[in-house]
Design goal:
83 residues; alpha+beta; globular; SCO4226
């Protein structure tokens, strides 16, 4: 499976608790699409939220987010990384 970084816009003022709630909503249904959401980050000032996942496709990531109530505008594959 491939890792993906998705980007949500328009979430100005999001709090840590709201981010955690949204992340848990994704995790509650992720298995139905074969996705695993690993981590989420937010910048409340810009309203940008980033989510790291492992999934069979970008469409699977989009479906989970949409069903959880926070559609995503960008999903980027991350085919490799270095540390």
């Amino acid at each position: 499976m491939t890792k993906f970084m998705d980007v949500h816009h328009g979430m100005q003022g999001i709090t840590k608790d709201q981010l955690a709630t949204a992340h848990r909503a994704d995790q509650a249904i992720e298995r139905e699409e074969g996705v695993h959401f690993e981590r989420a980050w937010a910048d409340p000032k810009s309203g940008t939220v980033y989510c790291l996942s492992e999934a069979p496709s970008a469409d699977a990531v989009k479906r989970v987010h949409e069903r959880a109530g926070h559609p995503v505008s960008e999903v980027h594959p991350l085919p490799f990384s270095v540390s």
